[in-house]
């Protein structure tokens, strides 16, 4: 028998036997390889080859065609195509890869599809254009597979295979073969064969009896990882309450059956994907509905791009088709929106999507605003009606407890009422309640102590982080001091980086750390032992050592990386070498990225993991895979700016991006690092990245990239208080956007110029810029941008004292945000209405607006704006004389800003605490708060807020009768405000210098300061003019 057929049959049999049993493909294959079974295996291979030839002839005869003639003449080429082998590889390498192809098969059906497609490729068929031929060929392979397994079953009786499998793998081989035969009989009936391999590789699966027969539910690990479709099919997770008297899945099913698409929205860990799976399983089980095509983001091996393949499957599916896509707004899935648009009026196709609300409502950065596809995706998404996940109820918790106890056999001691109260106290942290609840359930490991500011989830992360980063120290959960300290820490970082980014924790990727620590046997054995130590702790094996490892929710891993970034940030504060990126994450990225550039590194991993499907995919398309691995990591950093210290900058990074990456990805990473640093308030680091990107664009003649970079530099300069520089950057950006006819970019730059003018007190110029921006956004149909412009116009009107106009602008903005379902925008508009109410003295109305805004930000998990809302409520409390309440709100705001690494927000909260302390007469405390605030603003280069802190220190000094110090602080503040062109700040400091002079009896000098201040305020048409006039009147009375 042809060795190629024997090798193929070995892997087919091992794959089918192992599927759904919990044993590994490699374990089954190792037993089959033993010499005493060679003859039996060759006989099975012969049956497979002959059966396939007969089946193909039968298909040809039935179709009255000769298309498949000779399809099995070249098994060598077929096997090479399945294994992805290239011409010119050594015979040893070729033999090894062929012998390991079972790793490429997810299950027996996947194997049949891959073999059929390989045969077609060798014969020159394009099965995507001949779906009937594809179906026939897959069916033929399935028939031959079934015949071969039937032959194999007969051979078992004459060997000791049954005893060997029982003793070594605790597997009843006869039962496994019988199950396999049952599943093989259904292959021809299962419509999943209509999904091409590309669509399957990109994560789509067809729900079917065969699909669920293959997957074993995981009742214990799923409570800490994620519920699979198999878990949901087995009824493991509990149902959750909807808004009415029905369950949430029933509320969703009603409009879906009426062909109305829905978007399930909630924060991370809120149970979005579980609800989608419950809906999908119910749809599959309902005889009156049709096919379900499901893309699970946890199982998606590549970005979804094969729209044609999915369209073909939809067209040939039976009944009313439901297409479900998780995390649909992300770049690796958002191609689905084009199909949604295409099937807009087709009542036989319905789409169910999910997304995190903060991601859905975040307007794309200036880097992506002009990309038509990105904008169109978001427009389509905004038109889909949202289903906001209801808050967790006590009844939800009671059902969850019952489900957990039934699935695991473990008793939950605390009542649903107690757990509900505890979750309510943790709700401020922005994590999904169902994820938080899972860390209150007794799951295998001991509970950990947590402080008053932590959730159970955060305490769980912290304890494990400390154990891996500080082995042998007091308070660690396990003694891991036997391991190399750096290697132990790096394995912990690597597995969490792979999980948080969505790449997946594949063992071979963890072992890439051999690049940093040596590819010797000892290093790989130690990595393997560390992995085993982490299993059952926060890693959970899937059953096959070559497959992706399960771990806790990706948010768990993000919090782990957050702890790493915070530690590094603190170390930087105390170090001279403050700008270097974090070393552990850098080694992990270096080791991972080197896979794409260094052949010796890849070969070392392939020796350790022969036949790895992960490595085969990288070898097959190295450049494409390099982009696919790099982008998710830096998307994660932009989504979570607190992680920016792990990424560093172009000049400070300790890692190298793969040379195999496209130029576009290299440029994109530079800009993304800039965005991440900007969003955490590290403006000078952001400036470094944007300047590099600008230079690249100018060198290559990339006009659009040049305009984007100038716009970004303008935003950073504005945030730094460098208003003239900001204006110059933005004017250049505007000119280029107009030259290249980029209307969206033009509107963006106009809006930013308006913001600069607003900060400078040039309100008429600001209004003009914002009105121009508004007109463009309306013309191009950008409703979200329209609402943003209206909000900015409201701020300008408020600053000019036009409070009724301001309210009207903000109400229009609020109406649009609510109309398009943008809850973040809705909350910002409510906050702006609160600001207007506060300025007109309507403090209770202001408090109500801020409370509504706060509730939404907490609901969608936007912690930065949650902190802003808390600070605003604190301002209202201060105005009402509720100083202790004000202090509490600002303390909460400060805690969050520090938590998320927003240094600008931290300094603002410290400044507000200083103002409260002043009101309470606690001037030394006030001075300390303002000094801390000043240090941070100086550190991040925010000149405007530096000047404000100096002004506040001057006010404290005046209250303490330290007039010399007060004058010095106000003079420093005045100098900065004049240098940056902030006329409002200049006028306020002149007024304050007048008061110091008046206190010292220097009346003429005081009068001069007041008159200068009054002149500026009148020019700005600012309401503070009345206050300065009163100071002049008091001076005249005293004189």
Explain this structure to me?
Keywords: TPR repeat. This is Tetratricopeptide repeat protein. Pfam families: nSTAND_NTPase5, TPR_10, TPR_12. Residues 263-362 form the Novel STAND NTPase domain. InterPro entries: nSTAND_NTPase5_dom, P-loop_NTPase, TPR-like_helical_dom_sf, TPR_rpt. This protein has 1039 residues and is mainly alpha-helical. The chain folds into 5 domains: 3-189, no CATH class; 204-390, Rossmann fold, CATH 3.40.50.300; 393-444; 449-661, no CATH class; 942-1039, Alpha Horseshoe (Serine Threonine Protein Phosphatase 5, Tetratricopeptide repeat), CATH 1.25.40.10. The chain is 67% helix and 3% strand. The strands form 2 sheets. A 6-stranded mixed beta sheet has the order 1-3-4-5-2-6. A two-stranded antiparallel sheet has the order 7-8. Helix 16 (336-342) links the parallel strand 4 (321-325) and strand 5 (349-356). The longest helix has 26 residues, at 38-63. The N and C termini lie far apart (115 Å).
DSSP summary, beta strand count: 8
Q: How much helicity do the residues have?
A: 55-70%
Q: Enumerate how many helices there are, as a single number.
A: 51
Q: In the residues, how many domains can be counted?
A: 5
Backbone structural class: mainly alpha
Kindly report how far apart the N and C termini lie.
Answer: 115 Å
Morphology: elongated
Biggest pleated sheet: 6 strands, mixed
Mean pLDDT over the full residue set: 84
Cα-atom radius of gyration: 32 Å
Strand order of the largest sheet: 1-3-4-5-2-6
Can you tell me the residue ranges where pLDDT is under 50 for at least 5 consecutive residues? Answer: 365-370, 445-452
Estimate what percentage of residues fall within beta strands: under 5%
